[in-house]
């Protein structure tokens, strides 16, 4: 019976070779041993190419798989680049649309500013024309007013009073030479279309009156508190109290003193209306 064994081969150096050996039964057959030895040598020569072929197939398979993987990655990269390119194109298109919109709005603003400037220029021109017309009208009115004032100052009305009355400013005054009580003095003035003296705000009038009565006795004037309890002028207008116009401590309404007199000192005093004093009538002057 035959069996395979590995025995050293001196012809090949340190490498081991495989030989076929036979057991005790086969040793007895020399011709058959030689045939088996030749077959083993053939197997030795075929084993190395076979292994190389297998390694080549394995290497080729590995390279093919790596190539497929690299090709797949390359395809993915190409798709990513294509998508990125499409995104860039879309973004560029959107930016162009945005720029166009902004440019359109800018154009609208420029047109609005131009229209506003034109309107302002037109308004300024119209306003200037209006100002010129107003200044011209103002100048004409001023000239007309100055002319009227000049004419008025040149023309002064001639005022006159009844016989026995004194003209001062624009009023006529009668300083009576007889003495009457306050009611009769009032009635006497009314008969001449006049009133008992009503003092105005012009201090020149008071000075005129004081100069006429300073050397005589007191005179009744048209001031009383008999009707309402408050001092009023004879025409019903209220009297604004001014203590500087009265004698010290007056008016005191002592024993029913309800009528005002002007004393020779030029101050006012309240007296009993039944007393008899001279009086002063006042009437507007007449133009001739």
Task: Please describe what this structure looks like.
The protein is α+β, with helices and mostly antiparallel strands. Among the domains are: about 1-70, no CATH class; about 160-285, Roll (Mannose-Binding Protein A, Chain A). Helices cover about 50% and strands about 20% of the residues. The chain contains three helices and twelve strands; from the N terminus they run ββαβββαβαββββββ. The protein has helices at about 30-155, 180-190, 205-215, and strands spanning about 1-10, 15-20, 160, 165-170, 170-175, 195, 220-225, 230-235, 260, 270, 280-285, 285. The strands form three sheets. Strands 4, 5, 6, 7, 8, 9, 10 and 11 form an eight-stranded mixed β-sheet that branches. Strand 1 (about 1-10) and strand 2 form a beta hairpin. It is rod-shaped.
Describe the secondary-structure layout.
Layout (H helix, E strand, L loop, with lengths): L1 E7 L7 E7 L7 H125 L4 E2 L5 E3 L2 E5 L6 H10 L3 E2 L6 H11 L5 E6 L7 E2 L25 E4 L5 E4 L6 E7 L1 E2 L1
Parallel strand pairs: 7-11
Antiparallel strand pairs: 1-2, 3-12, 4-5, 5-11, 6-11, 7-8, 7-9, 9-10
Key descriptive features of the protein:
3 helices, single chain, CTDL_fold, two-stranded antiparallel ribbon, 8-stranded mixed beta sheet, Mannose-Binding Protein A, Chain A, alpha+beta, 18% strand, 288 residues
């Amino acid at each position: 019976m035959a069996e395979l064994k590995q025995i050293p081969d001196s012809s090949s150096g340190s490498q081991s070779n495989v030989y076929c050996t036979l057991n005790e039964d086969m040793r007895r057959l020399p011709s058959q041993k030689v045939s088996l030895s030749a077959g083993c040598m053939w197997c030795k020569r075929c084993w190395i190419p076979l292994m190389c072929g297998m390694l080549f197939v394995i290497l080729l398979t590995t390279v093919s798989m790596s190539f497929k993987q690299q090709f797949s990655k390359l395809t993915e990269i190409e798709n990513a680049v294509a998508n990125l390119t499409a995104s860039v194109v879309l973004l560029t298109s959107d930016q162009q649309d945005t720029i166009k919109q902004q440019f359109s709005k800018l154009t609208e603003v420029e047109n609005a500013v131009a229209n506003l400037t034109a309107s302002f220029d037109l308004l300024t021109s119209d306003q200037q024309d209006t100002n010129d017309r107003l200044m011209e009208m103002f100048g004409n009115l001023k000239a007309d007013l100055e002319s009227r004032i000049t004419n008025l100052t040149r023309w002064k009305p001639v005022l006159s009073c009844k016989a026995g009355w004194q003209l001062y400013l624009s009023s006529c005054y009668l300083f009576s030479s007889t003495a009457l009580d306050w009611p009769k003095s009032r009635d006497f003035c009314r008969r001449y279309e006049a009133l008992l003296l009503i003092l105005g705000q012009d201090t020149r009038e008071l000075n005129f009156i004081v100069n006429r009565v300073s050397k005589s006795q007191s005179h009744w004037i048209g001031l009383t508190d008999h009707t309402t309890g408050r001092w009023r002028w004879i025409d019903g207008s209220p009297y604004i109290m001014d203590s500087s116009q009265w004698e010290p401590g007056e008016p005191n309404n002592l024993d029913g003193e309800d009528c005002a007199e002007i004393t020779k000192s030029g101050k006012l005093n309240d007296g009993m209306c039944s007393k008899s004093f001279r009086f002063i009538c006042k009437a507007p002057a007449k133009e001739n």
